[in-house]
Amino acid sequence: MAMKAKEAEDTPESSAVSASPMLSHPTFVLQGVVPLPTPLKLKDGDAKDNWRRWKQFWESYQVVSGLNTQPKDYRFATFITSVGHDALDLYDTIQFEPGQDKRDVDIILRVMEDHIMGLVNTTYERFLFNKRDQQPGESFNDYLMTLKGMIRTCEYRVMADELLRDRIICGIKEDMVRKTLLQKRNLTLAMCIDMCRMAEVATKQVKSIAETDTSMVQVVRKHEPDTHSKGYVKKQEQRQVNCNYCGKRHLRGRTLSFKTFRRRQQKIRYYKS
Fold this sequence. Notes:
The chain has helices at 2-9, 12-19, 21-24, 26-33, 47-65, 72-82, 85-93, 105-117, 122-131, 140-151, 160-171, 175-182, 189-223, 230-238, 258-272, and strands spanning 240-242, 249-251. By secondary structure, the chain is mostly helical.
């Protein structure tokens, strides 16, 4: 029995499993499962915004896959594989400082970021930000997300929250909400955002209530007869009878009461006499 147990331990399958790097190093398994970041686009769209988004994906990928714990050459090869043609063209043209390692991914990212950020005209970005108003049909959350994306390229730094608040006040389309915000002392960015969101929700609720009331009125009117239609008037005329009290034609049961009729007759005789 001992010999059989020993032979089972020494089988090729068990030795292969124990020696497999896929099982002894979970990092390699994750790298096979987690997809690489999409290639960086520098020639299409906003280069600075594309770089910022790609860098976020890259840093998250390094943590999830365990790439940040791998050797320098392995990280460099992964970076070159995933960064794309636009970034490779930029990498080939960058002039590194003496002493900088061209195969160190951290140094490459820092140098590329300095180069890409230098391509942005901060004055023009601020001009676009300060001209951006809320568009018709645009929700406040969409408008806020757009402003947050634009202000990142303006480099306002410590003044970013205050200037974002001011842009919201100037750019929202509802004048009543703007008036309410201007009346608030010590208005912070968080307070401004909450008030705008609550105002938008209240407007939608009031509109929904008004639409519900309108639909209920339409349902009631649908069941009411149209007194102005020719068919309704003709039908009413056919139902009229000659009245012995007033001498006129009208619907049955719509005549004057006997007491009222006698009172009117007495008044007529009085004035004739």
